Amino acid sequence: MPVSDALRDDLLGSIPNLRAFAVSLAGNSERADDLVQETLMKAWAKFDSFQEGTNLRAWLFTILRNEFYSQVRKRGREVEDAEGTYAARLASQPAQNGHMDLRDFREALSQLPSDQREALILVGASGFSYEEAAEICECAVGTIKSRVSRARSRLAELLALEAGETYGADALSATVIMRSVS
């Protein structure tokens, strides 16, 4: 859908306000500029979903706010390791076991019903909250929670996992990895 000149002008006119809001959220101008850029890229890519005549600024500010909180959640899962202390202690199990585990996992995942597989990938692999996944799937949060639970149970059954057992390194490999990390 082509974007009208008036809409493009409104978008460009919103940049100073977006930047001010981004600075207030991010705390520094470099992160704010990145946040505004990401917001504009997402808005431009999704302009077909914007209804002309509605509040463009509110739409842009919502995108910016959501992007900021997505980045905050992502950073919460990251560990800073400027001196390489953690990286130096990393060890990995032999690749051939991982390859076979991954093949088995993919096969089991493909056997799940598509709605359960989708919910599990959104929440478990993509890092979306249950609420975000529910919005993406256009269903209730409880439905997503139920789908994820059923998917996890079915995967455990397909992979022949006992209650509390993890998937991946066998006991011997896990012991070797843990000793090399300590």
Automatic annotation (TrEMBL):
Keyword tags: DNA-binding, Sigma factor, Transcription, Transcription regulation
All copies of domain RNA polymerase sigma-70 region, residue ranges: 16-77
SUPFAM superfamilies on file: Sigma2 domain of RNA polymerase sigma factors, Sigma3 and sigma4 domains of RNA polymerase sigma factors
GO biological process: DNA-templated transcription initiation
Start and end residues of each RNA polymerase sigma factor 70 region 4 type domain: 103-155
Pfam families: Sigma70_r2, Sigma70_r4_2
GO molecular function: DNA binding; sigma factor activity
Protein family: Belongs to the sigma-70 factor family. ECF subfamily.
Name assigned to this protein: RNA polymerase sigma factor
Organism, as annotated: Faunimonas pinastri
